[in-house]
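Before the break, one more example. Copy the sequence into your notebook; we will annotate it together after we see the structure.
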Amino acid sequence: MSSVRFRAVSLFSNCGAGDVGYRQAGFRFDVLAEIDARRLQVATLNHPGAAEVPGDLRKTWPSVVERYRERAGATAPSILAACPPCQGMSSVRAKRGLAEDPDAGSRDGRNLLVVPIANVAQALRPRVIVVENVPAFFSRQVRHPRTGDGVTAAQLLAELLKRDYVVFPFLTDLVDYGVPQTRRRAFLTFVRRDDVAFVTLVNAARAPYPRPTHITPARRRHLRLREVLKRFGLPKLDASSASKARGKHRRLHSVPVWTEARYAWVAAIPSGSGGSAWDNDCCGACGSLAEDAERATCGRCAAPLPRPVFKARNGRWRLIHGFGSSSYRRMAPDLPAATITTASGHIGSSRTIHPFENRLLSPLECAWLQTFPRGFRWGRALDDWGHTFVRDLIGEAVPPRFTELHGRILVQLLSGVQPATALKADNRRCMRGRFNFEQGYSLAFEEVERWHRHERAAAAVSSPRGR
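Here is what the structure looks like once it is written out:
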């Protein structure tokens, strides 16, 4: 049995990118668990030596416990990191006024995947548990599997673990931490009540999260897409032909080739404007301007405008239904990138077009905007499973830039060191992440205050004046 100081277990590992940040902070992953064997293969490439547990965690969580104990015996993991799927939380259905309908939420079984997280935690008793998801994790209602009450997945997990853990909720935009994209995320960090890490937090009146690195009281210092792309130093691409759409030396630096009509839509958007193809009003055939934003064809020559249009069965041109003003739009060069999602390969998704060139962002650019290290190993993922699969892995990852910063705070806490760069317990990012617990629940900062009252009372009893 090796003497590893900070052992770790990963659930819903995806490709292991988020866990790379924790590893850079000092954690060593003994077990990676992921339902998709292909994702697990990529994750293991980047965490050599970790044991693999493929399959549905609702069935395989006992194997996670078994494989960890084979390596570490009775030693508890320092961290259990879990990133359950967010699709059920952020679905269109949830955004249509059904977020507070627990029956609608429970119909997507992925919204209850916090239960196997609790099962593993109760068996292994990790010192710290970190769970990441979209902000709807704090608001999307599901049915409690035992009581039938309507609760959020975050509340359910907190209830399942409340006997042994104090939970610190956190809601933030990772752009404030040097991630060059807008990426709002929710975190729960659970700290075991009997651990030195919790005592250290109490004494320091801190939360287990890092201070923002790219925002100050005076101004925001977010990374601009223009500067970041220049720093990447990648060659230009163009979606007009296969020869121009593929980089010579980096296979992940390539983009889909568009049809002539689709290419024309994008080419008509002024470079660097952050504009949308919906606003293209100049007819490519006769040069006249269309005054009606709802027109699909030129009022003068009847040619289709360079807008997202299609020819209906009756032979008439119609506008394509898209995601409103954010679809078919270039990213703004002087802002951080839009959120990198699994739909980065779709021109009609939200803000996926390159700010200057006539193409989408390449998977490599998306990975680097997600702060994947340049040495991240992909193996044969592109050859065996294609661009769409690789874009899925990238879009679902937790940016390693943030997990490394977070991991450094956790390493200090687990070592009994007060982290000077941790947020204060009453920071608005933690307060904003509060969920409305029913009676019987408690929030982390309330628990901290109880500890302080207890310490003051104990000091008063033991002092000569208190006797």
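The two ends are 51 Å apart (CA to CA). Residues 436-443 have pLDDT under 50 and may be disordered. Try to locate both features in your own notes.
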